[in-house]
Amino acid sequence: MGLIRSLQLITFESLGLSTELLRAIAEQGYTEPTPVQEQAIPIILEGADLMARAQTGTGKTAGFTLPLLQKLNASPTKAGQRRPVRALILTPTRELAAQVQESVVSYGKYLPLKSTVVFGGVNINPQISKLRIGVDVLVATPGRLLDHARQKTVDLSKVEFLVLDEADRMLDMGFLPDIKKVMALLPKQRQTLLFSATFSDEIKKLAATFLRTPKTVEIARHNTPSELVEQIVHPVDRERKRALLSWMIGEKNWKQVLVFTRTKHAANRLSKQLSQDGISADAIHGNKSQGARTRALAEFKAGKVRVLVATDIAARGLDIDQLPHVVNFELPNVPEDYVHRIGRTGRAGREGQAVSLVCIDEHQHLKNIERLVKIDLPKLVIPGYEPNPLIKAEAIPNGRNGGNRSGGSSHRWESGRPRSNHGAKTRSSGQGHQYR
After folding, report:
1. All domains of the chain, ordered by start, with CATH?
2. Of 173, 132, 183, 178, which is closest to residue 153 (Cα–Cα)?
């Protein structure tokens, strides 16, 4: 049976999607479903609650958007009646909310359904106007949704479908109290879908509280980067990271690079320095106005800005087609965030490259990441940027080690050839001496 099953071609049509949705899917250039779509869509169409674990870049947004649109269209609001909110999609960040809404619009373009998105950081009045007209699908961040609820500008008493997207990220960001408040406003009889990159104990507890005998879909192993992503580490002193990054972008003629820093201040500083180096760059983080964040992302996607420097708040909210390069200018304090960062590339079957610039301060962070992903990441020292062995490690604030030094002067890069296990790619990212 397994062999027969593997020879059967799974298509969006075979999943039972309508002609209108199939037309919209074809216009997006997709020909066959991803594993999460293949497994999730039939479960959602049959009406069961769902708990799905899928890494970023697996196509999960379409996995819940397509069947929700189909179910909503099967029982449309009667003509002349005000549209109640029937599907609510909660996301942790503004960027993710905006991009989920884009998917709803794209896939639902041939259906008579209305949708809108609400999030903070922008004027609430235009959102109120759209909600008054009535929408079938509402995409929202928890805080702004509760603002609307307090002002009585949204009615959630008719919600039939609830999606918790990036549920683990919402918990990480402290949204659990807000989620509970939102749940109290919803009908008890509804279909609930929870999507998460991890199935932590907290996520399981959340699911047990709000889902009814859910079916489970698990697509990728926990904290496993895509094998389509080439991962490489360039050892370099902390004060020479920016010079190395500028050199790499220019020497390798990288056209589109997403760069991660740990702090908002570092993102602003690096963006300004790259611009001074003649490389068009912009920064995106929580202190930027929503208008500035939206504009920076749009210009990056359009190729008007070559480098987008982001903090981890953007790690799961950015969906950029065919993004070729992600750079960890600074390693994240939390190892799991490394996986989410590099998940921005190597999507939809395309290869990508994740480069990490690692200084002596970050040796323990690197060890923690390698332990998490079960890979010894290949190291390549770029000639002219060799680390100075006399530089001592400095403490990294807010690390998992309580602010202790994350490395030490006794920890040096050991000469040898790079090791790579469990499918990590080791293609050289340039000429240089190879170390591990």
Report:
1. 2-218 (3.40.50.300), 229-435 (3.40.50.300)
2. 132
